[in-house]
Amino acid sequence: MVEKKRKSRDGRPPKFNKKSKFSNRFNKKSGTRTDEKRRTGPRLPQSLRKELDRFNPNDQHSSEEEEEEGVNNDVYEYEEGVPEEESKKNRRFDTVENYEYELPEDFKDENVDSDDDDDHDFDGGENKIAGRNGKKGGLDQLGDDVEDEDEDVERHLRMLQGITGMPSQAFEGPKKNKVVVSEGYPESEYNPTRDILDGDGRVAIEDLLESLQGKPGYRELRNITRHVDKKGKLLQAPLAKEDRDRLERKAAYEQSKKDITKWEPLVKRNREAPTIIFDKDTDLGFSTVGAIASEFEPRTEFEKKMSSLVHDDKVMAAHKEDGSRLLELNKVSLEDYINNQNHIAKMRGLLFRHEVKMKRVKKIKSKTYHRLLKKDRLKGSVGMPMDAEEAKELAMKQEFKRAEERMTLRHKNQSKWAQRIVKRGLDVQDEGTRAAMAEQLHQHALLTRKMNSMKDSSSSDDSSDEEHSENAGGSDQDEASMLLAKARVKTQQALEEDDEVPDSGVLALPFMKRALKKKKEAADEEGRLAIQEFELSLKQTEDTDGAENSKKGAVSGRRVFGASKMQVVEPKSKIRSSSISSDSEAELEAEEDIDVGFSRTDDMQKNINVSSVLLDVDANIPQDSVLKISEIVRERGPKTTYEVSMLQSDTWKKQMSSSANEVDTNGKRSRKVAEPVTHNQDIELEEVGEDSDSDSEGQMVDGILSLGNKSSYKLPSQAELIREAFAGDDVQEEFSKDKEEIMNEENPEPEKPVQLPGWGQWTRVQKKKGLPSRVLEEHKNAERKREEALRKRKDAHLKNVIISEKLDKKAEKLLTGTLPYPFTSKEVFEQSFRMPIGPEFNPATAVRALNRPEVVKKQGLIIKPINYEDVDPHERGEENRGRGQKQGQKQRINRSRGRVKAVVAKS
Amino acid sequence: MVREGNLENPKDDDDEEGLNLRNIKLSGQMGAKQENGDPENILPPLEQELSHELDTKVKKYLRGEGANLEVLKDKKLKGQLSVREDLYGISAKAAAKAEKWLMPSEGGYLEAEGIEKTWRIKQDAISREVGISSAKNQYDIVLPDFGPYTLDFTPSGRYMAAAGRKGHLAVVDMKNMSLIKELQVRETVRDVVFLHNELFFAAAQKKYPYIYNRDGVEIHCLKEHGVVTRLQFLKNHFLLVSINKNGQLRYQDVTMGEMIGNLRTGLGRTDVMQTNPFNGVVALGHSRGIVSMWKPTSAVPLVKMLCHPGPITAMAFHPNGHLMATSGKEKKIKIWDLRKFEVLQTLPGHAKTLDFSQKGLLAAGTGSFVHVLGDFSGSRNYSRYMGHSIVKGYQIGKVAFRPYEDVLGIGHSMGWSSILIPGAGEPNFDTWLANPFETTKQRREKEIHSLLDKLPPETIMLDPSKIGTLKSAKKKDKPTKKEMEAEMEAAVLAAKGTAIKKKTKGKNKPSKIAVKKKEKVERAKRPFLDQQMKEEENVAKKKQKIGEEISLPTALQRFARKKATA
């Protein structure tokens, strides 16, 4: 309907999609010519097109989005509100005002045109005005619009009747429908009112809330939303993890930098000190066992207990006064004594029997037996509770294996063997091979599984914790119930897990088991009581809670079920258990509660994780400080394991050594306390000299000489005179010649490049090329170099001096080849040794300071790590040295001397 | 042989008074005054003066300025060096303070008043003013038969060796004026020199130099040296240096007897030789007016300088090593600065012999007259200080100042004389260095010490303070291109010349042999070619560098590509 009139005007086929429709609209404003260019599509006869147009709205109805629009178009013919709304809704087009404004014009045109082509111009103008009015308040004109619409529809129907000859009823269906749709939608979130649509069209929380009014929980929600509104704060999205980490690192770095910077002046002082003297402590450490003992501080509980006994006032007083009182305090009852003796005897007996057994076993020569035994032992040790270090080591190993597997994927059917089998087809293989493959894959799965999944029980704990936290987050729930449930589960676990009975050693013996059983029974009794208590209190809390309780109950129930399930599993594991323990277990089962029985055999099922579980239990239980009972249980657990390991000779030794190590390390730590530093020329002279030579006799005969003069002066010989006379003739010339020679020798003149006669010439006709430029350049360079060298000579400006520049290879060894390490400047280096430091050149007071070694320390002195002290970074020199560990000055020497003297005086 | 004179009676030795003429002020009335300023009267200015004096002294003991530590980037080194400098300062200050006590006496000098001139003051005038012990240092020994005499003093100034040309050798203890030993070698003796102490002396005789001990026993005849004209002894290096009539300079180590150096000067016969006490460099004066300086380890002279247009007659070195005095036959005395090799002063006058005293006085002897030049202004401006003429007709052969005494010994054709020159000697002696009152034990001790501290001959160089410093990054003696080519050719020839083994199994085919030969030649050439290539590369790099440096204006240089090579 909408497109019809355009088609009739342009004589072009319409486009059925919305986009083309809109583009057409835009073009209309600018003119129809441009329009023509863009219109493409199949040319259809007018009538057909009309028909198609008529059905178009129906087509549009098919898509949900457009339904509304179509409906509105039909109902509110003269309104522009529809496209506007549409554009808002799906935001496929720019929300530019102009377009929105002009849109209605098109719209109406189309509508009008669809009916008769003649008056469309007219109508267009009308529609414009109407459109504007409609924009102001479309709803007021609703009535008129409807009337118009009705007329149109009637006309249309009539026309259709005329063409098709069918009754009007056949065409009425869709029309009715439309009318109903436009009018009859109730106002709801799906059918927003006009106000809402004219607004920014967003759905607010309040809108959503209204629908919930009266329903339970509405008040709460409203409160929350109000609270949010008041605060009016939007939560920012958290930073990316990388950014957060970076920030964190930055902060941490700043902190650590600050921490380290405070040491800077101290370190600087020590670095710059010529000498670091360690003489603060002449104490050479512990000299006696007593001294070491006095430093001892009890750490473990046992040690504390011991020290409390040893340092008991009574005992101390008794010890000081006399021995008799000590004896009194040391009274042991006869019964105790006998018991003790019996116990010892029993233990000895047990040990003896064990030894005998082991001897026998050792004698067995079967290798297979021993192999199996060893395997068993290894497995056993895996099952055995270990001390923390061992467990850690094992965990590390496991982790490494897992990582290795992840890296290599060794077990993922990638070996040659596996690949071949896969190639040949699995079905061809026999069962054994298939099993092996499966085993490998299983292994891979095991090894590549995440770390957490290895600790089954702990992970379940975690999940429960998570549940708890989730619940707490969801609404205000009672944490107490959660806690109680947890505690109960824990106690149950503890009840189950702590009672491991070793299948070897003394504790595996029947009477020991019986004794253990008794103890266990007592503990279990308590445990069960505790569980009952928990359940009671849990119920109470659940009552108060209300609706959510059922869930809780389910959780706890599931837990219980899990435990019972494990009990079911138990018999299987028992079959595997060794023959020694099986007898006693039968007994136990008869007597004991199933729980206990289960927990006993539990150790069979356990793998490495047991220890970790145990540890978990240990770590977790104290958190719920409510549970005393669990503490008791926990205490007992380790104890039994301890005893077991004590009796197992190997592990016992190990533990002893490890504990000894611990003691050692403790001792060391306490001991170390780690602290560680012209001349108006007298022409007279000439005159006088000459005078004296020639005429002045009286002057000559002065002095003390009173002796007669015997002249022994001989006239110089003829040759001498001649030589003298002609000596100075060409001396200068000769010398300069000499100098030149020497200079040429030391800096030889480069040879002039010459060409062989005939070289490079064919005939006389050919132009002489001369020497190649390369040779000429080389010569030039060499000459320049020589000149430079000559200019640099020391005697370059001294005409009458030749200073040899020949290198003396022998003297070369007295020079330093390269600048020694810390020095970077030649001048500084050469200045640094200008002063002799030997005793011949320096006063005795300074020699020592000049020659003091870098570190001065007494033999045997323990150098403690640097101690922090406040150092003024700007102070320099003496003050520095005078303090602390370092010095190098006379003052300090004197001081130390003084100190030594004082010591001497004391001793 | 020693005859009369005031030499014979060694009177009282008042050692405390010292052997120096101290602070003699010869005024117009010729009254000697002992300078005794009373410090109480003028304390503040004196203190000031003292502090100033101390400063100058400290400067002396600091031995130069400290380096500029601001250049250093290494803070640790900077800190350590500054601490070290502080220590040096403390040491120098302590030394300067101690100097007051260790060097109590000041040198004496003559001071003229009004129109008086110091060089007009006669020896008898001085003798009237000085003490008995100093006055006894004025004497003449007349030994007419064996002259002319040449003299040498031990470093301490206690002993003197005198050698008459006609074979008279004598060692005299100058302190108590006693003749220790004299002997007649009955042949020409041209020079005499003490070795490291008074126990030994060497004499350059007619054919060879000989070494005698104090008892006159000939210990060595050093035939290798030939006809020696002059002898010198380098006491720090234990080297006996001789120049023979063929112009050969020889260095012999007197400890092990090893000949350290035998250098041909190529400048003819000379009898002018002196050692520079500062660095041990031996200087020779030649007939062409050239002074050449030598060290035992180099065949060419360290320095050759044309000092005079005529033959050089005498030469002397200042104890600090910075000054040299030469005299030429053209009757000029020149004073040279050895640090710049420039003439400081040219004085008229002829000198047959020259000598510097410890305090820097220069004695020049010619004919029968001695004049002493002094530099009292401190500006290296030598002017006439004193003069003395001996009996006319006596020809002075040698002048030598006696160390640690204000005494000048004059060897002449009729024996030797001794006169007083106030301010010549160093008034304070260092017993570690030279002790005039040395006992036998001390002497022995010192001998051992000096032997232990003997310096190797390589340490003789123009500037010994260079020892330990960084080698100058100067040209390595690169072989020239021509030399390289010649070497390569030689190597190729050698490679071609090697005989080829006869082999079997088709390996002796001519083609194979040819290939092998070719390979050999290539192998021989390879190292040379490699070296050549490397050099070429270096040159190219340098060129490039220079080109870049030139091509870019300063404003654009920061955009230049940084070199990868650090």
Automatic annotation (TrEMBL), chain A:
Major subcellular site: nucleus
Biased composition (Basic residues): 1-31
Compositional bias ranges of the Basic and acidic residues kind: 85-95, 775-790, 871-882
Region (Disordered): 1-152, 449-478, 572-594, 650-701, 733-791, 866-907
Xref: InterPro entries: SSU_processome_Utp14
Polar residues bias locations: 650-664
Single GO biological process annotation from the record: rRNA processing
Subcellular location: Nucleus, Nucleolus
Key words, A-Z: Nucleus, Phosphoprotein
Ranges annotated as spanning the membrane: none
Highest taxon above the source species: Eukaryota
Gene Ontology annotations for the cellular component aspect, listed alphabetically: small-subunit processome
Ligase in keyword set: no
Pfam families membership: Utp14
Acidic residues compositional bias, start-end: 64-84, 112-121, 142-152, 584-594, 683-696
Protein name per its UniProtKB record: U3 small nucleolar RNA-associated protein 14
Source species of the chain: Dovyalis caffra
UniProtKB/TrEMBL annotation, chain B:
One Pfam family in the UniProt entry: BING4CT
InterPro entries: BING4_C_dom, WD40/YVTN_repeat-like_dom_sf, WD40_repeat_dom_sf, WD40_rpt, WDR46/Utp7
Segment forming the signal sequence: none
Subcellular location: Nucleus, Nucleolus
UniProt keyword list: Nucleus, Repeat, WD repeat
Record field: compositional bias (Basic residues): 501-518
GO cellular component: 90S preribosome; small-subunit processome
Location of region: Disordered: 501-536
SMART domains per UniProt: BING4CT, WD40
Basic and acidic residues bias locations: 519-536
Protein name (record): BING4 C-terminal domain-containing protein
Source organism of the structure: Dovyalis caffra
Taxonomic lineage: Eukaryota, Viridiplantae, Streptophyta, Embryophyta, Tracheophyta
